[in-house]
Structures are given as structure tokens and as C-alpha cells.
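User: Sequence for PTHD3 protein below. C-alpha cells please.
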Amino acid sequence: RLSCIRNNIWLACCGVVSAGLAVLSVFGLMLFCGVPFVVTVANAPFLILGVGVDDMFIMIASWEQSSRKKGKSDVKSLLAETYAEAALSVTITTLTDVLAFYIGTWTAFPSVRSFCLYTGTAFVFCYIYTMTFFGAVIVLNHKREQGNRHWLTCMPVGVGNDQAEESCLYNACCIGNCSRQSSQLETKQPESEHPMIIFFKKYYGPFFTNKWIKLLVVLLYGAYLGGSIYGCTQIREGIDLRNLASDDSYVIPYYDDNEKYFSAYGPRVMVVVTESVDYWNETVRLVIENCTQNLE
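Assistant: C-alpha cells for PTHD3 protein:
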């Protein structure tokens, strides 16, 4: 928003901080519990950030919807109605994500198991911080707006007779808007709905509540579900190592030739010596050489 009163930049930053706190908390807890940290776990913060920002938008949208309703000027009532609207959606999203990743801990691959354990637990912490930390930040931001304070400096913003003839940029940064009108009037007037909310309310929603459109959606979902079930029956365990290299890599011809000329010989056999060996001793080296020949 152009208004330096209604601008929610700090609120958005705190939403990202909330996701960051969840990542720090889960990393600390998992490492304290002795869960191994693998390379794939480094991708978890990006997943948590996506879900955390999504929850942040839901909370802010519910707060703005509640604040526009008449008779809801009390902060406790606004926050209660916000949680009543947003908590259900955030909870269901968190439960499905946590369930999906905790199911992944049943795999036989230790690296995947660690990744799923880190990420699934991080979603739990993200939910906790959204419901506690971010809710408190929303209230503090509301009090800042009610006090007619600047979004950056939190200093009281007003307009005087000597400021009325200043430039639009000065008025936007120091007064609250470009119209040279007192920003103190903004907090007393109901905020207009966002254009995206109007689009979904007046056009998108009525379009999908049409009975023929609903029937079409059900049919499309049935086709999607059938295709998904068929795809699950075609999944085979295994991985083609060629897919891990770039198209112009020298590794791809190697795997092609290996499969073409040596695939009939079975897997490679390796021998590991688990004891301390005096390799400097010639007799020991001869024993190892004889052992190798016997294995061959």
C-alpha cells in the first residue's frame, strides 16, 4: 500500500522470521536428539518458508476480513474471529503436510528418512509459531495503525498547515498518503476490500458454484484420481544413474557401455579389510595378494 500507515512490510518480514524460527527450532531439536543431518535436509528451509508464507497470507486476510466487519473494534474479538476463520485452514494444511512427511520416514533409505523427519517436525514448529508468534505480531501491527504511527519508524504521523504544500513523496513518507489529507482519518474509516478478494467473491466463486461447473469439476477430479491410481501401480523401485548426470557428461557413455558390454557379469564385488594391517610388511602384502587371487 502507498500509505505509510497501512503498509505491512514489517508484518510480512515477521512472517518470514516466523518460518525461520521454525527451521532453527527443528534443526536444534533434531541435532540434539542425534538425528543425522544429511545434505538433502538443506532443502527443508525452502519448503518451510513456502508453507509459512502461505499461512501468513491466510492469517492477514482473515484479520482484514474481521476488521472490516462492524462492531469488531476490540482487539480480542478481532483476534478470536481471525483464528476462527484462519486456524482451520492452517491446521488442515499442517496436518496433511506432517502426515505426508512422517509417512516418508518408513522408507529404507536413511537419507530420505532423516529428510522427512526434519521436514515433518519443522511443519509442526511452523504451525506453533504461526499461531503464537505471528498472531502477536498482527496485534502489535494493529496497535501501531490505531496509534497512527509510521510503518518504518513507528513515530506518530500527522499533517500540519506547514506540511500541506509539500511534495507527494514527502507526504507519502512523512504524512501517510499523497493526497495531503490527514492520515489520522485513515484509521477511522473502514478499509476497502482488496481487488483479488473482490474477484474471487463476485466472479470466481459464483462461477464454480454453478451446478454444471460443479459436475464438470467432479468428472475432472474423477479422471485425475483414476490416472493417479494407475500411475501408482506403474511405479517401480530403482534409479537410473544416467538421470543424475547432465546430458553432455562423460558419465552417460560410460553407463551405456557398461550396460552394453558388462551387464551380464552381475554387480561389482568389493572386499573391505576392517582390521589394522601393516602394509609396509612384505609378508602381509603377499597374504593380501593371495587372498585376492583366491577371491578371483
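Residues 75 and 143 are 9 Å apart (CA to CA).
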